[in-house]
Amino acid sequence: VQLVESGGGLVQPGGSLRLSCAASGFTFSAYGMTWYRQASGKERELVAAISSAGDITNYADSVKGRFTISRDNAKNTVYLQMNALKPEDTAVYYCFVRYRYKDYWGQGTQVTVSS
User: Which of 1, 51, 61, 74 could form a disulfide with 104 if both were Cys (CB 3.0 to 4.6 A apart)?
Assistant: First the structure.
């Protein structure tokens, strides 16, 4: 299993970014996917999750209405569209899947929201 995130960077408050997570090594369309984030000095927290078919999504209260998780099963990729970014969204964002009872994480992509 391999998860590779991309799309992070430096953005001003109020700006947007779209993160991508390319997955391989398992049947992507059969598994739910999750985005987590970890800010410096804080615990890792769930940001958004999506079902295998993409029809069910869940969000942390702190990002509801601003972030959108989606997936393209033909491309084995899950996305996180982040709008109206705030400085408190600054963190390393990780892609996650639980496959055959084992947890897999990507390497993370840094998102920094600052003026």
Answer: 1
Q: What string of H, E and C letters represents the secondary structure of 35-92?
A: EEEECCCCCCEEEEEECCCCCCEEECCCCCCCEEEEEECCCCEEEEEECCCCHHHCEE
Instruction: State how beta strands 109-113 and 67-72 pair.
Output: unpaired
Distance between CA 23 and CA 13 in Å, rounded?
30
**What's the token pair of residue 80?**
């996180």
Per-residue model confidence as pLDDT tens digits over 21-78: 999 999 999 999 999 999 999 999 999 999 999 999 999 999 999 999 999 999 999 9
Neighbours of 79 (CB within 10 A): 20
Six token digits for residue 84: 């109206």
How far is residue 55's CA from residue 67's CA, in Å, rounded to a whole number? Answer: 16
